[in-house]
Each structure stands twice: as structure tokens, then as C-alpha cells.
Design a protein that fits this description.
- By secondary structure, the chain is of the alpha+beta class.
- It is 54% helix and 14% strand.
- The protein folds into two domains: 22-288, Beta Polymerase, domain 2 (2-Layer Sandwich); 296-366, Methane Monooxygenase Hydroxylase, Chain G, domain 1.
- It has ten helices and seven strands.
- The protein has a seven-stranded mixed sheet, with helices on both faces.
- Helix 6 (187-207) runs parallel beside helix 8 and helix 7 packs antiparallel against helix 8.
Length: 391
């Protein structure tokens, strides 16, 4: 897994070629790392692995071994890329697509070469994708990666080193299938981790919805969109390999490529399902907030309703009319027990309102609901204690 990527890797990257430039112009990213070239040459009887400094060392491997895999990590040297393009007769438009790493997954046929573009996916704090460009020839496979920080192809390298499987015995088209298969399989752990993550988010939304959950839901939606943009065209690209009978893949290898196509369909189905779940989580979050707000407003309304008559009583007796002027001017002001009597009346009013709210079910379950639950429990107890009928 790749440890760290720049934040711009998860968003749409800007094209560096200026408008109106000549087709096939190579404009490398000044921040891109220098190319590191690794050669895997192999055959049924052995293999050779070497890190080389210059592209002119590659023909020596191609003359000696039946199959050669040249992997280039880093796209920061225009001269090296042009040398490789001249050596393998790469089309200028295809080489331009290698440098501009914002390409959608696709497959293009150039004479005797097949050009394949896919996006490798990694998971750090968010989802990160990296472009993989692949040129498949008769006895060579040329791959370009954006940087040398690890990839998902170590199992394929181990099979070449140890002679496991059928990689050495078959040609470069089978090696290309193995790389595509490893790239597609790398999506599954990330998709599975999102399944667990969304389950945790669902529990938090239902139990304790808070402002921080909105950012997590939006981040999950964004990551799933990145996965969808990477896997949707990849499915079509792999399908085009299956449809094209004149491609560089043999009939036997296309049988294995069909398995990759099935895996892309499974991944896409999971991504679409999780995207719908994320949308539902946002709706559930808003509903939970609305429900909590309604609960708070109900409590505040009950408290306000209780204090309305109490406020009326206190305001009424706060007028303090003089009883010496008229017997109708609040005679209760001269009572010996007037103050505790008024408090008693106010308390009775508050208790009466609480009882009324409770009977209406505004503060909890009503008497009728409690009776129904009690009868249900009694019926369940009676049914469980009754003897089982004999057969």
C-alpha cells in the first residue's frame, strides 16, 4: 500500500498542456519524481531482475529473454520518456496520455501495441488513485507509474521470482492480465473497509447524531465517488479487451480477463450500494436531528404551558388592590393563610396539568397503552406456561 499521496490526487487534476499545443506534446510535471526503471526478464527456465540507469540497457534483456517487463516509476524526466517512446515506437498521443495523469481508464490499439490505462487505488485518510499506463507488445510489457512508493504488484513479482503459477510459462499478455487482476483485487479490501465504516456511521447516526458526523458522511460520499469514477470506465476497458478478437491478448488469456471483468462488476455493485447507503445515512441524520429537536421543543412547550397559569395567578395577585376602599378589591390579601393557600393552588394546577399531559401521552405512554402492554405480557406468560399438545 502506498503510504502518502498529495491531496490533489483525489480530485480532478488540471491539464498541463496549454490550449492549442501540438498533439503529442510532452509537458512533464516539475514536481514529478525522476524515472526509476526496473526490468523483469523471464522465461520458463528462469528470470532476471535488475534496476537500470538508462533506457539503452533494455535491448540486452530483450535479446536474451522471451518476455520482458519494463516498469518505470516516476514521470519527471522528459528525455527518458522520449527515449523509451523511440525505442518501443510508442505513439506520440499515447505517450502524451502517460504524462497527463488525469486519464480515464481506457484501451486503445496502436498497430502492434495495445495501450491500457487504469487507476490504482489506495486508502490513507481518504481514497487516493494513481494512473497506471501499460503498453503491451509481442514480447514486452512496458508500464508507467506516477511515483515509486510501492504498488499492488508485489504478489506478481513474487510469482515471477519463485516460479509460481503460469507467469513464466506464458507470454507478456498473461503478465498483463496478472497486473490487471492484482489492480482490480486491490479494490476489494478498500470496499470492505467502507462497509464496516458505514455500519459504524449508521450506529452513531441512530444513537448520538452530532455535527461531526456530517463531515464524515460527506467524506465517505466523496471517496465512493472517486471509486466509482475509477471502476466504471475500467469495467468498459476490460470489456473492450474481451470484445476485440484482434488485440494482443490470446484467446486463452481472454478467458482469464473475463474473471477480471466479473470482479469489476461486483465492485461497481458494491460501490453503488454503498453510495445509496450514504445518501440514506444523511436522510437518517436529518430525521434524527429533527426528532431530537421535536423532543426538546415538546419539553419546553410542556414547561411553558405549566408556567402560564402560574404566571397568571402571580400576576393577578401582584396587582395589590387596597381592600379598605372596597370589599371587592382582593380580600385574599388579608387572609391569615393566603400565601400558602395560593402556593397550594398553584401546585395543584401544575400537578393537574402534568397528569393531563401524561394521560394524553405527551410525556410518555398512556394508561391505555400500559394496560395493553400488561395484558400482552400476561397473555404471553399464559401461552408459554400452557402444556404442549401431544401428537
Amino acid at each position: 500500500m502506498k503510504p502518502t499521496h498529495e491531496s490533489h490526487s483525489t480530485t480532478t487534476q488540471l491539464r498541463r498542456t496549454p490550449p492549442g499545443a501540438l498533439p503529442g506534446s510532452l509537458v512533464v510535471d516539475p514536481k514529478a519524481p525522476e524515472p526509476q526503471i526496473t526490468v523483469f526478464a523471464f522465461g520458463p527456465n528462469g528470470y532476471a531482475e535488475e534496476r537500470i540507469e538508462e533506457p539503452h540497457e533494455i535491448p540486452a534483456f530483450m535479446d536474451k529473454w522471451p518476455s520482458v517487463w519494463i516498469n518505470v516509476d516516476g514521470l519527471g524526466d522528459r528525455d527518458v520518456l522520449q527515449q523509451l517512446g523511440t525505442m518501443f515506437e510508442l505513439h506520440r498521443l499515447a505517450l502524451e496520455d502517460v504524462v497527463n495523469v488525469h486519464q480515464r481508464p481506457k484501451v486503445e490499439q496502436y498497430d502492434e501495441q495495445l495501450f491500457f490505462v487504469a487507476r490504482m487505488v489506495y486508502r490513507n485518510e481518504d481514497v487516493v488513485t494513481e494512473q497506471l499506463s501499460m503498453f503491451l507488445g509481442d514480447n514486452y510489457l512496458l508500464t508507467f507509474q506516477e511515483r515509486e512508493t510501492g504498488d499492488c504488484f508485489d504478489p506478481v513479482r513474487d510469482r515471477i521470482r519463485k516460479g509460481y503459477g503460469r507467469v513464466r510459462a506464458n507470454g507478456t499478455d498473461f503478465l498483463a492480465y496478472c497486473l490487471i487482476d492484482a489492480l482490480v483485487d486491490a479494490y476489494f479490501p478498500i470496499i470492505e473497509s467502507y462497509g464496516d465504516h458505514l455500519e459504524d456511521l449508521e450506529d452513531k447516526v441512530l444513537e448520538s447524531p452530532g455535527p461531526g458526523l456530517v463531515a464524515q458522511i460527506h467524506q465517505s460520499r466523496r471517496d465512493l465517488l472517486v471509486l466509482r469514477r475509477a471502476i466504471w470506465p475500467l469495467r468498459e476497458a476490460i470489456n473492450s479487451i474481451l470484445r476485440d478478437r484482434d488485440s494482443n491478448f490470446t484467446k486463452e488469456t481472454r478467458m482469464y480477463v473475463r474473471d477480471c471483468y466479473d470482479h469489476t462488476i461486483q465492485i461497481l455493485d458494491l460501490v453503488e450500494a454503498y453510495r445509496e447507503l450514504v445518501s440514506d445515512l444523511m436522510d437518517v441524520y436529518l430525521s434524527s436531528l429533527s426528532t431530537r429537536l421535536n423532543e426538546v421543543m415538546r419539553v419546553l412547550t410542556v414547561i411553558s404551558t405549566i408556567f402560564i397559569p402560574l404566571t397568571f395567578v402571580t400576576s393577578l395577585y401582584g396587582m395589590n388592590f387596597n381592600t379598605e376602599k372596597s370589599p371587592w378589591n382582593m380580600p385574599e390579601l388579608n387572609w391569615f393563610l393566603g400565601y400558602p393557600l395560593i402556593l397550594l393552588i398553584m401546585g395543584a394546577m401544575a400537578v393537574g396539568q402534568l397528569f393531563f399531559f401524561w394521560r394524553r401521552g405527551w410525556l410518555g405512554t398512556t394508561l391505555e397503552e400500559r394496560d395493553a402492554k400488561r395484558k400482552g405480557r400476561e397473555e404471553d406468560g399464559n401461552s408459554s406456561s400452557s402444556p404442549r399438545p401431544q401428537t
